[in-house]
Fold these 4 entries.
Entry 1:
Amino acid sequence: MSNSSISSADDGFDGSVSIAVVTAIAARRNVAPTELPPLYEWIDPDALDALFEPSRTRGPRRGRLEFHYDGHDVVVECTDDLEITVDGKPIADPVSTATVGMSDESVTGV
């Protein structure tokens, strides 16, 4: 596993990509995810999750998406692992998308 991996599984990423993005930005800024503005002000979190959601017949989806979020350039790339790069730098440590004590709504503002 590379140091830029968020999560890895043999069948592809199995968590919420939108939460992983917010968590990565929060880690980069050294703040709690709830201190960030809602992700939906820049990109639709449901669409982001659906984009990388495994297909029913072909397994994990692969792809790359670049967008801006609250002053940061974000790249999400999904191959066998999910990699998130913020401002041209992969996040230094793996980020758990299982944020303790937070629902999807509190992190993404949905």
Note: The longest helix spans residues 17-29.
Entry 2:
Amino acid sequence: MNNTRFSTAIHILTLLADSGENWVNSDWIAGSINTNAAMVRKELSALQDAGFVIGRKGKEGGSRLNKPSSQISLADIYVAVKNTEVLGKKNLNTNPQCPVGKQINKELDQLYSDTDQLVINSLKGLTLENFAKKFC
């Protein structure tokens, strides 16, 4: 549960939303996040794969939004970068002889799925545009 991908993605996209049509380089973004540019480029790649960002290489290169911030929901961002469960990892080595151990992961799968859907539903109505306005 110690995953910063969502917060990093929101940070990057908020910076790009505030930059309009300007190309923003990964070094500048990294300075705002207080991390290294390689990590930013990794996240930018995932955001580009999701269609939120376009990139341009070279001296005048950088990244910018690929579509208006009003068309990017926080739920879409969450789904694009999610790589861990909100509730954490499950124990995959439970005792199959135990009445709880042999079934718990099946029950946890449903609980995790339901919880994930609650998070997604909560974020659906929120746009990057509205989030970014908090920093103007």
Note: The chain has six helices and two strands.
Entry 3:
Amino acid sequence: MDEQPLRFDTKIAVLLRDDLAPWQRLNVTSFLVSGLGGQVPEVIGAPYEDADGVAYLPMFRQPVLVFEASKEVLRAAHTRALSRALPRAIFTADLFSTGNDTDNRAAVRAVPTADLDLVGLAVYGPKGGVDKVVKGARMHP
């Protein structure tokens, strides 16, 4: 019996600033998606188990699409995510110089929304809404 692929009416997208070093892209992506997983429980699937019965943690139930864009496109995407009130996570350039979660939160809290030096944004929501948020970005190579 052939199963049809599961289609989602929602989307998880990560948008990275295009001037980040490779290690920064990986680091930012990891932090951003952890924020979605922690606050949007419906994105998490069931735990995994291999043939020997060894259990593994659950992961996202759907693909995560990763995009890149200029600083200006990222800022516009952030504005659109806010205007649509979509669940979102941000990563600012300041977070590269902090060493813990407390300092991370303080660094973001110290900067007004319009002045955030965004290097990454993760967003979750209806496909159409997320597509509008990442408009102008391109798929990460």
Note: Residues 22-39 form the longest helix (18 residues).
Entry 4:
Amino acid sequence: MQTLANVLVGLIAALHAYILVLEMFLWERRPGRELHGFDPAMAKATAPLAANQGLYNGFLAAGLVWGLIADDPTGFRVQVFFLVCVVVAGMYGAATANRRILFVQALPGAVALAAVLAAR
């Protein structure tokens, strides 16, 4: 079960690293614009906001990686903390921005959190 939990945490970290790249570096290019259906002008206008969001997603990814490499009990506690942050951010994003965030961010984070807790 520990291996499954580690894999899931790694996948969530990779997802948030991808979101960092998408929001910080690709927002005004095709992948970023297609995410929300923005035209080039809207993508340019919202790029600073997206970059800020991307940076926060990078912090989530870094925290999850830290949790994977730290010895227990620190590693376990860090994973739980950052996975809870992922779930809360996903629920807030789903409530305020786009319901799809619930399935892309919050649900996978909750599954990984459940696996981490079950592996304990």
Note: The mean pLDDT is 96.
